[in-house]
Specification:
single chain; alpha/beta; Rossmann fold; 2 domains; 7-stranded parallel sheet; 6-stranded parallel sheet; 44% helix; globular
């Protein structure tokens, strides 16, 4: 029986893929401690793991969060340094006392990676986005203004890195915080076929496909195509977009399920068309099993779940990382970009997806690659293998 620690950021798209991996590790007899947040506590504890909430160490979300997500590198580094230094006394003390055999940390949850390196504990990177290296980083296609903003923040970034080094964290360049390197054992929750430039990654990268617990279908009674619309859990307060969707599809021969997020007041959207079901949140895995098209913000989790069930997409990315995912969906022929979110363009894009067999066939091709990648069991095997190798190396050095 091994002791395994997980770290993650407070985000559904980064936490959800780890839940079933944790459940599998516990089922295999391992002990798991998960440094997460109260919002995810019940889901984590249902797996049999111990959840250690870290809410008190997180800075408050900025008022302009919608503008910063995926665009403000200096703010990400600020948050990383602040959280790392705020948590280190508590967490390093607990880790030294518990003596974990392995630390698994989300690729964006950089403090988990820093703690593992400082304590010299075997480390596995959990990557819920595409894996990024110097080649694939170009896929982000940041605008000139975003690049200039990043460059203007470099003095502040370098000052924060010096602060980390003073606390014993060996970080030379900022990209070491973010980039997947070829020497780190890395689990990527997609398939080689969907990962851009998968040939540029070392054999330390294991592409396991999505990590899902597939529920029973929602039981939606289908007499015509079902269209699902969601902008995810972060940048989803977009009333004008939802009104355009209602205008676009209210007279079409389709049923629509639209998730609008907890910050959107459904009553503010006006008269709800008869063929629409609107809610703050739905069970996305249930809906996607029966959907014929998905209008999505192109978060990696949402796209992966859509492709897992072979559902083609209308693509409406909101930030650079989502843009990279959307372009990959286009490249494999499983969706089309929406562009401007007018009622006319939404109607045209949705109808095009529904009438074209090509998008459906390509989505099903990606679905097959996901199902064949190994999934939860493969991810758990990688973590256990890292532990066994470390223990064997230790014995050989005695």
């Amino acid at each position: 029986m091994s002791k395994i620690v997980f770290f993650c950021i407070p985000a559904y798209g980064h936490t959800n893929p780890t839940i079933e991996v944790v459940r599998e590790l516990v089922k295999r007899g391992n002990q798991v401690h998960y440094y997460s947040f109260y919002e995810f506590r019940s889901r984590i504890e249902e797996t049999g793991a111990v959840c250690i909430p870290c809410d008190d160490f997180m800075p408050p979300a900025p008022a302009d969060l919608d503008k910063k997500v995926g665009r403000d590198l200096s703010s990400l580094v600020d948050m990383t340094v602040d959280v790392t230094l705020a948590m280190e006394d508590k967490v390093l003390g607990e880790l030294r006392a518990w003596k974990p055999d392995c630390i698994v940390s989300d690729s964006i949850c950089i403090w988990g990676k820093l703690f593992a390196k400082k304590l010299n504990v075997p480390f596995v990177c959990s990557t819920t986005t595409f894996a990024f290296n110097q080649q694939t980083a170009r896929l982000m296609k940041q605008s000139l203004s975003e690049l200039l903003h990043m460059l203007s923040g470099m003095p502040r970034i370098n000052a924060r890195l010096r602060q980390l080094r003073r606390h014993g964290y060996e970080i030379r360049q900022f990209y070491e915080l973010l980039q997947n390197d070829n020497d780190t054992e890395t689990i990527v929750y997609t398939s080689k076929e969907f990962q851009p430039m998968s040939e540029t990654f070392s054999d330390k990268f294991t592409f396991t496909g999505p990590s899902l617990a597939v529920p029973k279908p929602s039981g939606h009674k289908k007499s015509r195509p079902l269209v699902y619309i969601s902008l995810g859990t972060v940048l989803n307060r977009q009333e004008d977009f939802y009104r355009s969707c209602m205008e676009a599809l209210k007279s079409e021969d389709v049923d629509v399920i639209m998730a609008v997020g907890g910050r959107t007041d459904v009553s503010d959207l006006g008269v709800i068309p008869d063929n629409f079901q609107i809610a703050p949140r739905v069970n996305q895995l249930e809906v996607l099993q029966e959907a014929d098209a998905f209008l999505t913000h192109c978060g990696m989790n949402s796209v992966s779940e859509s492709l897992y069930f072979g559902v083609p997409m209308v693509l409406f990315p909101q930030q650079p990382e989502e843009g990279a995912v959307a372009r990959r969906v286009q490249e494999v022929g499983a969706g089309i970009m929406l562009g401007e979110a007018t009622a006319k363009k939404i109607r045209s894009a949705v109808n095009h997806i529904l009438k074209s067999e090509e998008y459906k066939n390509n989505s099903e091709r990606m679905s097959m690659s996901f199902h064949n990648a190994g999934g939860v069991k493969k991810a758990a095997e990688i973590i256990e293998t890292v532990i066994v190798k470390a223990q064997n190396n230790m014995q050989n050095n005695i």
